[in-house]
Predict the 3D structure of the following.
Amino acid sequence: MNKNFDKYISKEVNLLSKLPKAKRNIEKRKGEKNLEIIKESKMFGEKYWDGPREYGYGGYKYDGRWLPVAKDILEFFRIKDGSKILDIGSGKGFLIHDLLKNNPTLSVKGLEISEYAISNSIADTDKVTIQGDAKKKLPFKDNYFDLVLSINTLHNLKKEELIKCFKEINRILKNKENSYIVVDSYLNEEQKEIFESWVLTAEFYGYPQEWYEVFELGGYMGYYSWTIIN
């Protein structure tokens, strides 16, 4: 391991361990995946969220699975009453909803590119969600948030966009270490082959060291874990 990247090893923590493991039919996706499906998926519209499985989630419905995850996140970061939290790529607001169920005093906001997801979000989370793009300047004040989260979203940015986004995350955070992201990665060639046969929307992905290089360039100081398809 490059000595410059040693500092990132201790920042890997799986705060999604209580989520059910996703069931994926890799061979079926291989046969269905094509440029038209990828193009449609990257629109992040109805087909991506609630259309056939080959376009994305295959129906993204609330089932309470984020409740224990939200609890673990709040406990890990020792989040206090009234804290301000941002979820980048908040989707239909399930994590926002469950963070608030764990602690109703929190001020939680979402940033989501998909108008469809926001208009089909759970409860009143649409009212605290801004329609926007993470590759642009984040529409929040400096040193505003106590915690920034981004689950399975930032890999949808290109490398240079990611670097800018990490700098923006630093700008809006009070404590630059109080962030947690989950992004696509793989640890060997077999996992890489499986991932590339499955992925639809990711623009940047790679081995951990390739991610560490981007962390370094963007000055990312928070915590992270990988989504590995196997």
